[in-house]
Amino acid sequence: MSSDSSRTPVASHADTAIAMLSPLPFVTHPLPGIGGTIKATPQDFVVEEILPYAACGEGEHVYVTFRRAGWNTADAARSMQKCLGLAPSDVGWGGRKDKTALVVQTFSLRCGVNHPLAEVEKALADLPFEILAIDRHRNKIKTGHVAANRFSVVVSNPEPGALPRALAVAGRLKQTGVPNFYGPQRFGHGLQNIQRGFALLSAGKKGREDTFMVSVVQSALFNIWLKQRMEAGDYRNLLAGDVVKKTETGGIFTVEDPAIDAQRFAAGEIVTTGPIYGFKMKPATGAAGEREATLLGQFGLTAEDFRRFRSPGSRREAILNLADLTVGEVAGGLRFRFTLPSGAYATTALREFIKS
């Protein structure tokens, strides 16, 4: 970064975004938090990936479901690739999972239709993974091929009286849902990825990590949009022009008359969505659209700026429904169990309880 006397618009935009992101509001304010620590050990943070389909039993891709701890997704993929003599492109997974966690995940390995499953399992036997299932399927698992993630998380060393506090927060969240913020891990240490992402969008240069860094900017702008929505008192309100998603089918449509759709929204049949800006994103219209356009313009960007990075954009659900949330006491803390859709962060749900 240059000195204050010669700061560029890029630095100013990144700094503005960082300032606008902190602090994010709590939907359960003013209920007190429980404090405590997450991820004291990998076994305290368990995540099980749920695919949208099961292996069909035939095809050139071998699906391996395994349990691991202390490994990130990319390193686990490389280790399997080397054991089987595959190219990096032969290995597929639906999403990255935390290293400091006990993870159940499925990889696809393009081994060919004639490679015996027993030999695949034998080749992986020396890796520190517990193989839970192995089968064949016709297609590679690609990024996003995850229906949901099931979490079991222990918050260690909470404050005294944590259980009734947690139950009060849980009760509120079942009424309001959880704001679907991206977690801080998305933005890197010290939010440095936001600086890198804005620099890429301004410079027009392209490198190996461009796609991810640009997605960091998209994520930051979504968080700012959702924060502003909450601060305006419209977190649980529909606006004319909102783009909403049907929770059962995933279809999206634009709200023309909020009064007509208010009952479906209150019942959880539809949910508001926020902008993941890109050259193909379906924009909101009316009052909701003016907010989205103003926010993007504040950072000197247009939808077309994302085209050269092949970032089409999308809509992201603004509210998460924790229908299966449970809270219980364990030795040294509280255990939280819940399921989140792909792309949602467990830390986002837990911050409502911890509040530290």
Summarize the structure in short.
The protein has helices at residues 9-21, 73-84, 117-123, 162-176, 192-203, 210-231, 258-266, 286-298, 346-354, and strands at 45-50, 61-69, 91-93, 102-110, 130-137, 148-156, 178-179, 243-246, 252-254, 270-276, 314-317, 319-320, 326-330, 333-341.
Distance between the termini: 30 Å
Number of domains: 2
- CATH topology category name of the largest domain: Pseudouridine synthase
Query: Tell me, what's the shape?
Result: globular
Average pLDDT, rounded to a whole number, is 94
Strand residue percentage = 15-25%
Low-confidence stretches: 1-8
Helix/strand class: alpha+beta
Radius of gyration, in angstroms, nearest whole number? 22 Å
CATH superfamily of the largest domain: TruD, catalytic domain
What's the helical proportion of residues?
25-40%
**Total beta strands:** 14
Largest sheet: 8 strands, mixed
The CATH architecture classification of the largest domain is 2-Layer Sandwich
CATH class of the largest domain: Alpha Beta
Order of helices and strands: HEEHEEHEEHEHHEEHEHEEEEH
SS field, number of helical segments:
9
Written overview of the protein:
The protein has 2 domains: 4-30 and 181-317, TruD, catalytic domain (Pseudouridine synthase), CATH 3.30.2350.20; 53-145, TruD, catalytic domain (Pseudouridine synthase), CATH 3.30.2350. The protein is 31% helix and 22% strand. The chain has helices at 9-21, 73-84, 117-123, 162-176, 192-203, 210-231, 258-266, 286-298, 346-354, and strands spanning 45-50, 61-69, 91-93, 102-110, 130-137, 148-156, 178-179, 243-246, 252-254, 270-276, 314-317, 319-320, 326-330, 333-341. The strands form 3 sheets. Strands 1, 2, 3, 4, 5, 6, 13 and 14 form an 8-stranded mixed β-sheet that branches. The chain has a 4-stranded antiparallel β-sheet with strand order 9-8-10-11. It has a two-stranded antiparallel sheet with strand order 7-12. The radius of gyration is 22 Å and the shape is globular.
